[in-house]
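Predicting structure from sequence has reshaped protein science. With that in mind, we have picked out one protein's residues alongside their backbone shape tokens:
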Amino acid sequence: MIQTMSATIRTLGELRQRHGSQPRTVKEEIRGNLVRKLQAGEQLFPGVIGYEDTVIPQLVNAILSRHNFILLGLRGQAKSRILRSLVDLLDEEIAVIPGCEIHDNPLNPICGACRARVAAEADSLPIAWLPREDRFVEKLATPDVTIADMVGDIDPIKAAQAGLNLADELTMHYGLLPRANRGIFAINELPDLAGKIQVGLFNILQEGDVQIKGYPIRLQLDVMLVFTANPEDYTARGKIITPLKDRIGSEIRTHYPTSRQNGVSITAQEAWLDRPGGVRIEIPDYVREAVEEVAFQARADRKIDKRSGVSQRLPITTLELIVSNAERRALANGEKVAVPRVTDLYAALPSITGKFELEYEGELRGAETVARDLIRSSIGSIFTSVYDGVDTRKVVEWFDLGGSLPLSDNSSADDVIQQTRAVQGLRDLAEKAGIAPGAPAPAVASAIDFVLEGLTAQRKISRNDERGYSAGTEQASRRPQPRREEPAADEDFQLPGRKKKYYN
């Protein structure tokens, strides 16, 4: 294995003494390193959560089979992360011929210039070492990509200056694909490539070589090709041409987190939560779960376009905005601890509304209304799971008897605790949300907020736009109503000046 040897091997002769003249292809290299990791029990694809029993086994099988493969999935399903993590399966460094644009192998050069150098300098040819991070080339497919960008073109100026025939491969200007030689070439959103560019990939997938501009210039490239695509586009009726589809070894389907706990773990890993500034951030479990539930609810909502999907970036950016809102409140009130509340989800509407596309029914209602419904439903779902079987009647009855509770998004933790002190049973319910003994006031206020919003989501109490809590609509309708005036039984209407009769 050519690995971490740059300090001891400086010439082609030394390289031959150490490794002979039979270099591995890049797919053999990746396969060999994967086998070693499997035998050692090392973690594969760190940071990829929830794919242990689905995507990763298929991915391992494709690599062991030395396949080029494609990841099919909606946006925000870690496709690009998986492709970039393939770099960890490459050797730490490989020997290359210095100055070669396609990182030619000193033991088996493929370009004319490098073959000439090897023939002229033999074992005294100096070699360079290329780190594995430089062996990954990624390209986002767009309709404006040309065949010259991807494969290469003939440079007539170079030919004129060197006095070369245009058919000489020394006149070639290499594209991205040849520059990925001896590495991994990743194309994101493959169907967005123009048809003629897809045709240009045929030879490299089937024969392992490329041809430039119809001239007899052929390069036997050593490259692993990997792709991503949306399943809606990757069909015969979509924008992928069937012959190219047929030449890709494995199609691997990705998916969104199948459990809320996996989603919570992914969001915690990706969100920026370690904030400088002197305010400590503490996020309750029920807040994390409510954030994740918004994404789960959105993916199941018929008003949201399923073909577009709801990216995992929705809960990630939502949690970041929730933490920022809690941080802003703590800074304004001089608190040393910032604890997000579930009502902070409404402060994250700018993130939520930008992460999904609506069907016709959703467009009629509007993105913000749909998002508010998702938030309310998510809070209710988490509240039901936390308080399953817990009696909440004391708190509800307090509001039924005419109690009201005006609160503000900017209320300090001490103000929330003080204003809710009179609500019978509220503090006891808040403690069941998992508040540790001696918890700081912001944590207590967050739990109180969770109880109030949960009861609101269950329609046991109501809340107006100014954040005032009161009895629910059903309970309010059952209250004793004040005595009201009724017309006499024999009167269809009241004439001016006539006395009204009253019924108690």
The two ends are 97 Å apart (CA to CA). The CA atoms of residues 125 and 313 lie 50 Å apart. Residues 475-504 have pLDDT under 50 and may be disordered.
